[in-house]
Write a structure and sequence with these properties.
Blueprint (H helix, E strand, L loop, with lengths): L6 E7 L3 H12 L4 E4 L15 E4 L6 H16 L1 H4 L4 E3 L2 E6 L3 H12 L5 E4 H7 L9 E6 L3 E4 H14 L3 E3 L4 E7 L2 E6 L4 E9 L5 H5 L9 E10 L22 E4 L12 E4 L7 E5 L4 E3 L10 H14 L9 E9 L6 E5 L2 E8 L9 H13 L19
Parallel strand pairs: 1-2, 1-12, 2-9, 5-14, 12-20
Antiparallel strand pairs: 3-8, 4-8, 5-7, 6-7, 10-11, 11-12, 13-16, 13-17, 13-18, 14-15, 15-16, 19-20
The chain binds flavin-adenine dinucleotide (FAD).
Flavin-adenine dinucleotide (FAD) binds next to helix 1, strand 3, strand 13 and strand 18.
Amino acid sequence: MKPTTERNDSLVLGGGVMGAAAALALAKKGERVTLIDRYQPNHAHGSSHGDGRIFRFTYPEAVYLELARQARLGWDELTESAGQPLVVTTGNWDTGVAGQVQLQELEANLRQHDMPYEMLSAEESNRRFPQLSIPRGSVALYQKDGGVVLADPAVRALWKAAAAHGARTLSDERVIAIEIGDGGVRLATESGQRLSARRLVITAGSWTNSLLALVDLELPLEVTRELVVYLSPRQPSTGSPETEIDHRVGAMPTFIDYHGCPPGPRQHPTYGLPQIEVPAVKVGLHHRGQKVGDGDESSTPSEALEQATVEAARRLLPHVRREPHSTLTCLYTNTPDYHFILDRMPGENGISIGAGFSGHGFKFAPVIGEILAALVLGEPTAQGLDLFAIDRFASV
Ligand SMILES: Cc1cc2nc3c(=O)[nH]c(=O)nc-3n(C[C@H](O)[C@H](O)[C@H](O)COP(=O)(O)OP(=O)(O)OC[C@H]3O[C@@H](n4cnc5c(N)ncnc54)[C@H](O)[C@@H]3O)c2cc1C
């Protein structure tokens, strides 16, 4: 690799929501940082595009609830760069049969953290949230403080805020070589750019293992292409008549349906978001997508998955059409236990890796950016990170 003329303190490889958040956190600490992505910000090839993501405190693990609290502060702080709030509070609604383990775990964690919630009977829930229907004997856990994070505006705001704090941003630059040595890291891009720095943060989403292969590391990551289906309300929401069933954000909560899901990490609940930009409710089957290669853009989701998603929605959402308004695909990068990887690269203190967000990372991006920045700078983190350590995998 040729020597470079410009040297950075830090490089961030991958400018999806996590990399943009890490670049912002580093720039705020006064680092000369360059954020590099192979595409333009807000591209639709990876994991961070679309109109919204669920923002929730309803996790069984204390660590995620605490991270969500910190992330919420981060999103609120970013409102200025975005020119709009990035989290819209609309409540989270989770359902299952009465006494179902998942709901009990969520309830216990909320209670332990003094977070308000309500456990509603089917009758109460169906009356209060007519957009969503559950049978007698089922219950719904409603948590009022959750909502949706506006995905495309959030990624845009992070890039903008990082640049405003002095980060250099490079898009349409694909990194093809990583060299570690001499107290630092050097990167080469396909177009011939050369960059060097003392530190590197790798946030390459579903391309993580192809990049780590350049430095002889492989993490136990599985990439899946997931599908979401947008279903229009039978009556478009206008907000006027009192009797109207309003499916818009602000009027309808996000939803996760645990009916029929055995406990454990490999769960496939139906989840969804109210209408945001697209005039339709978004529904997906968590972790039901097909396995694909790193960053694979060629595969298309099966029709069977689309049909299964519509069928699950039909049971839960009685007032939406059955013919999809549109569909969207997006990549999950899954770890075996569905917990993230937030750690230094083994044997390399100057490199941190944020990967394996397993389909639930977006909401946490501001705090994950701070964690990755602290790790690469060798600073202590406010959070215990054992759950996210690379050495939990015997194979690495
Ligand atoms: C359908 C779907 C629904 C989801 N729902 C939720 C939800 O409700 N709530 C929630 O919190 N999370 C949700 N998630 C998960 C969340 O969106 C992801 O965890 C998050 O977007 C991951 O971001 P990332 O930055 O790690 O990856 P990405 O956004 O994929 O970013 C990685 C970046 O690295 C770049 N890159 C890769 N290789 C190179 C290279 N060689 N050179 C330069 N750049 C490179 C890519 O171009 C890309 O921009 C969902 C995900 C999907 C797909």
